[in-house]
Write a structure and sequence with these properties.
Distance between the termini: 9 Å
Low-confidence stretches: none
Number of helices: 9
Number of domains: 2
Radius of gyration: 19 Å
Oligomer: single chain
CATH topology of the largest domain: Ribosomal Protein S5, domain 2
Order of helices and strands: EEEEHEHHHEEEHHHHEEHE
CATH class of the largest domain: Alpha Beta
Strand content: 25-35%
Structural class: alpha+beta
Helix content: 25-40%
Shape: globular
Number of strands: 11
Length: about 300
């Protein structure tokens, strides 16, 4: 196992996968943006953002999925850093290192999570000491999922991502995340939609256990799943493989895909499903981790290999 060793002055933040347990497309605004209603949680699997003091600004990317960001000139991490500096009157000086574990363009908010982690890290590194709520407008300007990633707790997300309401208390459960390593374009998925709009159906009850949680989620949908399968048919194979795993309570796509999740009541069956599926589908990205409702509880990993 290769582990990154930061300096003693480094600030380290986890950038966890965002998972849309439900996603209802409820309307479309005159400006062309779609309105959504979604129950959003997080997974224990995460990218790691390290910020160290420096005389100027630099960003380096490493980790098992770093190649997905090769050649990306205007990275969302760089935009987040420069816009934070503009907002606060600071000079852009930091050495940023991203350990990229999450797949790119995968429907789990990897870039948004990285941007949110950048804001949190630089808020500490630069001694700004502001409440993160002060950066919500900046976050919205970076992307629709950045505010929910910056808030870092389970919420019902509505509007175009700007309306965040605390989710009900959720039972301890585990998430099997699987991606066929096929990037999916969100605009392409919305373009492929042929269905009308759905009524909002937020989860308001507090499920007592994993079975009740899965049953409640089964009454709701991801309205982008069908158009996403048109864009990337392998999503159907992923969903079937997850559903067939022993102990899986629910199989569904997250966001606009292609990442799909399985909900499990216990860590052991989730880990076994990940091991088995990882062996059977070596070209897929597979991860088992607890469902997280407060990202501040995640201990950032410095492991460079996974």
């Amino acid at each position: 196992m290769t582990v990154f060793t930061p300096s003693d002055k480094a600030v380290i933040e986890a950038a966890p996968a965002k998972v849309n347990l439900t996603l209802h497309v409820t309307g479309k605004r005159p400006d062309g943006y779609h309105e959504l209603e979604s129950l959003v949680v997080f997974s224990g699997v995460h990218d790691t953002l390290i910020a160290e003091p420096a005389e100027d600004f630099s960003l380096s990317i490493t980790g098992p999925n770093a190649q997905g960001l090769e050649g990306e000139g205007d990275n969302i991490i760089s935009r987040a850093a420069h816009r934070l500096a503009d907002l606060t009157g600071k000079r852009v000086c930091a050495r940023l290192i991203l350990i990229k574990r999450l797949p790119v363009a995968a429907g789990i908010g990897g870039g948004s999570a990285d941007a949110a982690a950048t804001l949190r890290a630089l808020n500490r590194l630069w001694g700004l000491d502001r409440a993160l709520g002060a950066y919500m407008e900046l976050a919205r300007g970076l992307g629709a999922d950045v505010p929910v990633c910056l808030r870092g707790e389970a919420v019902t997300m509505a509007g175009i991502g700007e309306i965040l309401t605390p989710a009900p208390v959720l039972p301890p459960t585990w998430l099997l995340l699987v991606n066929p390593m096929k990037p999916v374009s969100t605009p392409a998925v919305f373009k492929a939609r042929r269905a009308g709009f759905s009524a909002a159906n937020p989860l308001v009850e507090e499920p007592e256990d994993g079975g009740a949680f899965a049953a409640a989620l089964a009454l709701r949908t991801n309205d982008l799943a069908d158009p996403a399968r048109l864009v990337e048919p392998e999503i159907s194979d992923v969903l079937t493989a997850i559903e067939d795993a022993p102990g899986c309570l629910l199989s569904r796509m997250s966001g606009s895909g292609a990442t799909c999740f399985g909900l499990f009541a216990d860590a052991e069956s989730c880990a076994e499903a990940a091991r088995t599926l990882g062996e059977e589908k070596s070209g897929w990205w597979v991860s088992a981790a607890p469902l997280v409702t407060q990202t501040s509880e995640i201990q950032p990993s410095l492991n460079l290999s996974r």
